[in-house]
Amino acid sequence: QVQLVESGGGLVQAGGSLRLSCAASGRTFSNYDMAWFRQAPGEEREFVAAVGWNGRSYADSVKGRFTLSRDSAKNTVYLQMNSLKPEDTGLYYCAVDVPGVGRYWGQGTQVTVSS
Predict the structure, then answer these.
(1) What confidence tens digit (pLDDT) does each residue in 49-92 have?
(2) Which end of the chain is more exposed for a tag (fewer CB within 10 A), N or C?
(3) With 0-12 CB in 10 A as exposed, 13-18 as middle and 19+ as buried, what is 115?
(4) What radius of gyration do the chain's Cα atoms show?
(5) pLDDT band for position 29 (50/70/90)?
(6) CB burial class (10 A; 0-12, 13-18, 19+) of residue 12?
(7) What band does 17 get if pLDDT is binned at 50, 70 and 90?
């Protein structure tokens, strides 16, 4: 059973920082693509950042401010978020793509950035 558990969200002022964590269990995920998405109220879920066999990628809106890292020994990925803006507010989800099976999602962690 694959499980993803996000943590680290909270309320922060604009310009501040947060670090999100996504702890995975049920498999060894070091060779799988893992990603962060977010969803603001009334909006569709959108891609934020990913790591996979071809490196890391970021949405244009977060480039230079967010950094995704992976600790394979802990089966955990992190999202360091700096210079946060009110438009970064949303529910942040971790996802993993398991080949031949599909995409698994975590339950999400709320990030709120006040102006």
Answers:
(1) 999 888 999 999 999 999 999 998 899 999 999 999 999 999 99
(2) N
(3) exposed
(4) 13
(5) confident
(6) middle
(7) very high
Helix and strand counts by DSSP (H, E) for the chain: 0, 11
* Sequence-ordered alpha helix ranges (H) in 1-115: none
In whole numbers, what is the pLDDT of the chain averaged over residues?
Answer: 94
Strand 109-114 and strand 55-58: the pairing is: unpaired
Residues of the chain above pLDDT 90, percent: 82
Burial class (CB in 10 A: 0-12, 13-18, 19+), 73: exposed
Q: Which helix (H) or strand (E) holds 48?
A: strand 46-52
Amino acid type, 97 = D
Residue 47: name the closest of 79, 17, 24 by CA.
79
